[in-house]
Write a structure and sequence with these properties.
With about 120 residues, the protein is α/β, with parallel strands linked by helices. It has one domain. The chain contains 4 helices and 5 strands. Strands 1-2-3-4-5 form a 5-stranded mixed beta sheet. Helix 3 links the parallel strand 4 and strand 5. Helix 2 packs parallel to helix 3.
Length: about 120
């Protein structure tokens, strides 16, 4: 994790965990701490660089993105995810669309520059 005055950048890299329960457990461990840091520092934008490799489960993606608050994410924050790998991006786009349908300020991108530009939009 790294931060500027208005953006927290998170990098997930390495091999994806094999079992969905392991992935969900990892999210439960990570996001409450990241969200608490954002609240303490007044950060409202989160850039997620997803560099994980390996198979991705649509069941896992659905379960996570339909329950982001339960995993410690905060609706007052804006989230941009960058995923260069096409297959993973396609599966994660499904989850992002579910989250957006629930009112989350979240989007997925192929390139970091585009994600940063989207994140920098003023809040309404």
């Amino acid at each position: 994790m790294s931060e500027t005055e208005d953006t927290l950048t998170v990098v997930f890299s390495g091999p994806r965990r094999v079992h969905d329960f392991e992935k969900l457990e990892q999210q439960w461990e990570f996001w409450p701490q990241a969200t608490a840091l954002c609240r303490r520092k007044g950060i409202r934008r989160v850039l997620v660089l997803n560099e994980l490799v390996g198979e991705i489960s649509s069941t896992y993606v659905r379960g996570l993105h339909l329950n982001l608050e339960e995993f410690g994410l905060d609706r007052s924050l804006r989230y941009a995810m960058v995923v260069a790998e096409p297959r993973a991006r396609a599966v994660l786009t499904f989850g992002i669309e579910l989250a957006k349908g629930l009112g989350w300020d979240i989007e997925i991108f192929e390139e970091t520059a585009t994600a940063r530009a989207w994140l920098s939009r003023p809040f309404s």
